[in-house]
Amino acid sequence: MEEVENEQLQEEEEVAAMVWSVQEAVNMQTVQIGVSSCGATAVVDVLKVLGVTVSPEEADRCVRTRLRRNEALLPDYLLSRSEAGATHTQLIQGAQESSEGKVMGRFFHFHPRRWVRLVPWIARWIRKGAVPVATMNLQVGVPEGEEVPDAWHHQLIFAVTPYCVFMTNPLDFVSEREMHQRLCSESVLLIRREDVLQRWTPDCDLSSLSDNHSDPRWKILDVEGQVRQMVLEEEKQEQDQPKLMHIRIPAAYSSGITLFTLRDSELGRELLDAPELPLL
Length: 280
Prior knowledge:
This protein is α+β, with helices and mostly antiparallel strands.
């Protein structure tokens, strides 16, 4: 019995690791530095952990955070929503530029689903000295009855314990299962009904969305058709009929985890050589 308990304790220790303790995270974390700037906020804290001090303004400039064009007509508004904030590529470039080349990052895709035990995988890299940042779709796995968030999110992972992941901005923890859901998502974004209808006008040229040759997903998802269905529902005003509460549009982001470390290090070389996670 004692041997079994010792083995269980050892296994739990192997899947527990931290960049910061909870108290350190409370004291050290950076609160969101601006609108749509969760990525740049995460970069500030990554650099802080790695011993590089950078102002929030400089990090945001280097990440090149994109903003929503809230006052634009519907087609342009939707295009801005699809890329608002930053991608993992922008985070990697922003960390490298703002640290003057001292820091590098390597992104690992988690969609399609990967053959990996999430918490032990994160723990191994943290113990080696890497700083993880998750790029997640918060719109998946939302419990019934709860409001669906209106964006993806970047969060620094400061600790893992068996079956649990701790993050900053905001300070939060989620189960391994919930984290897997957020990390294994198609690159799509849900746009709320009211955000569509309040920008709709009869002369809106929605065909520009379907004719977006740089990203055929606008046509594949039939965003134009989704908008027209939503408008038709509003015009009919049939109270007993279910209505589209969101439309689905392409998102610029990919779900996964970026691991950051100092470029001139053994870990930096190991990260560059690490294979992609195998598909399930």
